[in-house]
Amino acid sequence: MCVAAYLTTAVGRLHQLFLFLSPLKPVFVSAALAIVLYVVQQVGARRIRWVRSPTTTYLLLLLLWVALSVPGALHQGLAFSLLTSFIKTVALYVLIVGSVRGFHDLERLAFVYFAAASVFSVVVLTRFPVGGNNWRLGGLYYYDANDFAVFAVTAVPLGLYFGLTQTQLHRRLVSLGGVLAVLIAFIWSGSRGGFLAMLAVVAFLLFRYTAMRLHWRLLTMALIIATGWLTASDRYWTQMATILQADNDYNRTELNGREKIWRRGIGYMLSHPVFGVGASNFGVAEGTISPQARLQERGIGVRWNAPHNSFVQVGAELGVPGLLLLLAVIGSAFVTLHRVAKVERALSTRSRAPPQLAQAMQASLVGFVVGAFFLSLAYSEMLYSLVALAVALGKVVRIQTRLDRWAWARAA
Fold it and tell me: Tens digits of per-residue pLDDT, 343-383?
């Protein structure tokens, strides 16, 4: 319960949606209680040894690299602040993986992630109406519209899993209702990067979600398409159509467009290949060591841009090793989920639920990776919560099938 509360506040930002919760310090209280209870209950599947995995190793090395980037950072204060925040994110990862005892625990936490996105979406729909010239969402709680779009995309596959696999009708209806709210709020975000991420998720669900029967996959596509058709405005589709007109887009042509920012980011990585410019220092690099930073000597203002690409972000801020470690964290999570599907027949219960959830999580990670290509989410709780759920599922299946480490590795 404490881990679930930590997840809803760290990712779902529940305390920022409902301000009466803020004085209770729910993030700190839930995290502290979860840590204490986890340390005390070191028995069975909750022993720390079950947290060990390649993903955990890569994540701890990434945390170490964030720490090593602090001394040489362009702005050490920003780098240290990111380090302290990232330690909390890694703690959330460890708690999710470590606290799960069995598949039902894992399902509950996956549902909490989806429910957090659903509640956030309902709040968005009721407090941030769109229409007329205000055709898309503006400032939200914690997330901006583009970040929220990625959050929504990652939640949809989990919601569909619960909506299509639950045996009780009321649970299916609640889950599908949550998916509907998330989809409508996603459309209101007006995010082009989010739209591409959703297309990737839809393609994965249709062609790669083989643990789910074809007619259910087709029904899923129909639900998503119908929601978009009925709720998206003409302005929304006009905006999405600009994706195909990249040559005239400001992201290609302007100095502060994404393409030129990415090129400069790659330059920062190549000029600082080992430890980068320092965690959370991309904007500082833009304002101090970028080619256009010299314009400030002539009184011309220079924007301290965000990287708008999670992989460029890590490469520039943590160097080549940091980029490789981030890719390893994500890649190893995909491998774990693939293994879960591979060992389906070895499950003593012969249940299809673990591989179904594994492929839903794969779809969520696909959505995040595509969305993160256009946003600065390299250190976000969203990513490491999804990765933790993937590793926890692998842990559960390993325990159920009694596979040793080498047999588990061969399952890939």
Answer: 765 555 556 788 889 999 999 999 999 999 999 999 999 99
Beta bridge partners of 63: none
Residue 292 corresponds to which tokens in the numbers above? 């256009």
∠44-48-51 over CA atoms, to 5°?
Answer: 105
The amino acid occupying position 66 is V
The dihedrals phi and psi of 131, each to the nearest 5 degrees, come to 160, 155
Confidence class of residue 132 from pLDDT cuts 50, 70 and 90?
low
Instruction: State the pLDDT confidence band at 404, using cuts at 50, 70 and 90.
Output: low
Q: Where are the domains of the chain?
A: 2-250+307-410
Distance of CA 57 to the CA centre of its chain: 19
User: How many CA atoms are closer than 13 Å to the CA of 304, on its beta-carbon side?
Assistant: 8
Cα angle 391-269-384, degrees, rounded to a multiple of 5: 20
Answer for the pair 172, 164: CB distance below 8 angstroms, yes or no: yes
- Give the Å distances, CA to CA, from 132 to 129, 183, 184, 267: 10, 20, 17, 42
